[in-house]
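This section describes the prediction task in plain terms. A model, or a person checking by hand, is given the sequence of a single protein chain and must write out its three-dimensional structure as a string of tokens. No templates, partner chains or ligands are provided. The sample shown here is typical of the held-out split.
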Amino acid sequence: MRFNVLSVVPACLMAAYTVAAQPAPATPEAVVREHFAAQVAKDIERLMAVIADTLEVHPPPVEDLPATPGVFTWKEARGMYAAGFEMPSSERMELAQVIAAGNWVAARERYGTRGDSAAFESILVYQVRAGRVRGTWIFNGSMEEKDPRTPQAVREHVAAQAAHDLPRVMAVMGDSLEVHTGTAGRQPAAMVLDRAKVDGMYRGIFSRWPEQRIELMEIMASGEWVVTRERVTGMGLPGEPAEGMAVYRVHGGRIVGMWLFDPEQVR
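The expected answer:
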């Protein structure tokens, strides 16, 4: 069963949520932590033990340019990582924050030291299946002080949806909204909606599911990006509550983009 946060087009919603699975012996979060630790140690054997036979790498979104993923075999991925490990580096790496929902894990990763002009921070969303990383989505963040309007816009967005308050929802929306949906959040499953269409979308959601409620469980932010783990009830799904993950892009306190990830049952 696929997942989507409740801010997607209504036709996608009923099939989009998945009920949280029981903990597995090796959780997706544990896999991502091992992946990061192996990179810090530059241990290629340890790293490749958690890489799937095929690895998709989705580059950071760039304004007005399509994001085409790189697809690598296990052997190609090994060569790519091994070449990186051979490069001299004194860079400090830190796993600052992790959020997990189903097969998806978001990690806020820091490289370098704050104040260093070469330092940077990224949010990576990993897809994990059968104890191995099969895909990564990269969102370039920032180690600078965060604009408090960025996470606040997303908090208000979730609270407004929970209250079915359309004016509050629209107050934190930009002039247009780019929505990425579908299996694994892949391009080109994207829509760009103007404000009238966004208004109509939420009217439809609130009308179809009057008992729907959302709770914000976890949040992380870096630069213009915010990741959430959200819990939903009131949609008549078996075994509710259901949970899922979304990445929001925020400009000047207004939401202008959503990347909606669809975790399958953990296995």
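For orientation: The helical segments are 10-16, 28-41, 44-48, 74-86, 149-162, 166-171, 195-208.
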